[in-house]
Amino acid sequence: MFYTDQIGHEFELKSTPKRIISLVPSQTELLYGLGLEKEVVGITKFCIHPNEWFTTKNRVGGTKNVNFEKLAALKPDFIIANKEENTESEVKALQKRYPVYTSDISNLSKSLEMIGQIGVITDKLNESEKMIEKIKIRFSKLIPFAGKKNKVLYLIWQDPYMSVNQNTFISDMLKSSGFENVIKDETDYPTISETQIKVLNPDLIFLSSEPFPFKEKHLLAFQKQFLNVKIMLVDGEYFSWYGSRLQNAPSYFEGLINEIS
After folding, report:
1. Residue 202 domain boundaries
2. pTM assigned to the model
3. Are 226 and 133 found together in one domain?
4. Which of 139, 163, 179 is the last residue of a domain?
5. Number of neighbouring beta carbons within 10 Å of residue 185
6. What is the pLDDT of residues 39-95, one digit of tens each?
7. 246 and 110 in contact (C-beta within 8 Å)?
8. CB 66 within 8 A of CB 88
9. What is the CATH number of the domain that holds 163?
10. 135 and 157 co-located in one domain
11. Is 146 inside any structural domain?
12. How many Å apart are CA 129 and CA 227, to the nearest integer?
């Protein structure tokens, strides 16, 4: 059977995969949610959920520095990657030797498409359809933030400060929650200075827990510098993980909205 992934790459699978390697943390969690305990033989060192997989599954390096020897030793018959999280050169090298599905996620619709495709490929269609329906229902019930002060600067890194533009999945999650992303830059993850932050004049600054682990000390430092801006620590996994975690994301967003309100 031939399949085409989200970057337009076509690959062939002669049977349902029995030895899967995931190179993407949020998609590793998705495979767990679909019940693929036996089939998943390898993950990355950043695939921290679920914890039982993180502590017991074979690791094949990081998302951007795959250990090809360890990967080959596991004899995978299917590999799952992501356009943004994995490097293009490594994905292309893997495509030459293995069936590789690469996702390209910029919004909720693309994430649901990916979940459905993985469900078909792994013979977990029923499980994936139930998951998709649950996600759709929960997002449909999410009441977006209705306050006037809804302009958000979402920071993912410090030194230099880095944010996210309108084309990212994070920005789509902000929009779904009723927030306006103040970044209009063409670069997906632009660097930004303190002076630029003041010019943007956000109502809220969200300090994400990943990839940079912003803590209370960072919040306090920001609050001293931007006295009229509400600074908040937010769970980056709910804003950027596009697999099974989406089932619980609306509840998290609701809690955040209530806290701001």
Report:
1. 151-260
2. 0.95
3. no
4. 139
5. 15
6. 999 999 999 999 999 999 999 999 999 999 999 999 999 999 999 999 999 999 999
7. no
8. no
9. 3.40.50.1980
10. no
11. no
12. 46
Residue 27 CA, chain-centre distance (Å), reads: 8
Q: Which residues of the chain have pLDDT under 70?
A: none
Whole-angstrom distance, CA of residue 30 vs CA of residue 47: 11
- Whether residue 134 is found in the same domain as residue 155: no
Give the count of alpha carbons within 13 A of 153, CB side only. 26
* Of 33, 75, 83, the residue nearest 58 (C-alpha): 75
Is 144 a domain residue? no
Amino acid identity of residue 191, one-letter, is T
Residue 254: CB atoms within 10 A of its CB come to 17
Q: What is the pLDDT of residue 143?
A: 96
Tokens standing for residue 165: 């533009």
Total domain count, the chain: 2
- The tokens describing 21, both together, are 């390697």
User: In this structure, which long-range contacts are made by residues 253-261, counting pairs with CB atoms below 8 Å and at least 24 apart in sequence?
Assistant: 253/142, 253/173, 253/176, 253/177, 254/142, 254/143, 256/177, 256/232, 257/143, 257/144, 257/145, 257/177, 257/178, 259/232, 260/145, 260/147, 260/204, 260/230, 260/232, 261/145, 261/147
Q: Which two tokens stand for residue 131?
A: 């998951």
- Which residue shows structure tokens 């993950």? 43
